[in-house]
Specification:
single chain; mainly alpha; MetI-like fold; 2 domains; two-stranded antiparallel sheet; 15 helices
Length: 349
């Protein structure tokens, strides 16, 4: 048995390394736009060889881990191909004159310098941060109040939960056009002017629509956290004479600290990536006077929409990719800071 196992070792190494080489070669040929017709066959053979090489490794100690990895590999490979690989390529393309199909030369930091000189881009970054702060506060506050209502003894709780969550099921594009009709045709009879025609009011209109759509989803997470609080703890606080306010701040909030962390993180990332409602409701239009010495005609255009317009509508993929890289860095840094601060508060509570 030992000699058989030793005999499998060279074969397993050959299959393993050969599989990796075929996979890498197939991916490189595809990225280079090669017309070689057997790229797909190379990729399939490489994956099969990679798996067989792993499976034939002559060791009992790690064989179970290898089998686990083989079953986990499709998910890891999908994540690598759809997330990590495009991210690395995108960072590389941001330093070139990429046209969406190919690039002819490296331009260094020219794209990054260009975007920081653009008043419309700087305004979209500032507007996005304002939007995120408003929504992190308002969405979590309203969602928590709705969760308190939906965990109380009020009759018809099931109806309220369904009604509050229902807007989250409507797509952002459809939702934007529905509220565009409301702001431009229904409310105009009361306010005498459309909110969407004024840049400041248009921002609040987007905030209102976002809260209406997203608060119900965050409410369900808060409901889950509140229902996990042990009943005997609440009963003990009632026996000790604690009123509703004291119970809320001294017991409920500390015991759902992890839930608050999750909700603030989800709200933060979702608000930063706001795109569909912004595009459908205002299209990013609006005037801002004397910003960085110029007039910005995209006063309600947030960062995600700005990146889309740069790459798709202006056909400037390299500059759009540079903006997307900066967007990723901002979102990653802010998210890490938020989670770290929230976890620290959890410990204190």
């Amino acid at each position: 048995m030992k000699s058989v196992a030793q005999g499998n070792k060279p074969l397993s190494i050959i299959l393993f390394l050969g599989g990796i080489a075929l996979i890498v070669a197939a991916l490189v040929l595809d990225c280079m736009g090669s017309s070689y017709e057997y790229r797909g066959a190379m990729l399939v053979c490489g994956i099969i060889g990679f798996f067989l090489g792993l499976y034939l490794i002559p060791t009992k100690k790690h064989h179970r881990k290898i089998v686990y990895f083989i079953f986990l590999f499709p998910l890891l490979f999908t994540f690598l191909v759809t997330v990590i690989f495009p991210l690395v390529l995108g960072i590389g393309y941001s330093f070139t004159d990429w046209t969406g199909i190919k690039f002819s030369k490296f331009v260094g930091f020219e794209n990054y310098i260009s975007m920081f000189k653009d008043p419309a881009f700087i305004w979209s970054v500032l507007l996005t941060f304002i939007f995120v702060v408003l929504n992190m506060i308002l969405v979590n506050l309203i969602a928590f109040l709705l969760a308190l209502l939906c965990t109380s003894t009020v009759r018809g709780i099931g109806f309220f939960r369904t009604a509050y969550f229902l807007p989250n099921l409507i797509g952002g594009i459809v939702l934007g056009y529905i509220w565009q009709f409301v702001f431009s045709n229904v409310l105009i009879s009361i306010t005498k002017t459309s909110w969407l025609s004024q840049t400041n009011m248009a921002l609040f209109a987007i905030v209102i629509v976002y809260i209406w759509q997203y608060a119900g989803y965050i409410m369900l997470i808060y409901i889950t956290g509140l229902t996990q609080i042990p009943g005997d703890v609440l009963e003990a606080s009632s026996i000790d004479g604690a009123n509703a306010i004291q119970t809320l701040f001294r017991i409920k909030l500390p015991m759902i600290a992890s839930t608050i962390t999750i909700c603030t993180f989800l709200t933060l990332t979702s608000a930063f990536k706001q795109f569909d409602v912004n595009m459908a409701l205002t299209g990013g239009t609006g005037f801002v006077q004397n910003f960085m010495g110029s007039i910005v005609t995209t006063g309600t255009q947030m960062l995600a929409l700005n990146i889309y317009n740069t790459a798709i509508r202006q056909n400037n993929y390299a500059l759009g990719q540079a903006k997307a890289v900066l967007f990723f860095i901002i979102l990653a840094c802010v998210s890490l800071i938020q989670v770290r601060v929230s976890n620290k508060k959890e410990v204190e509570m």
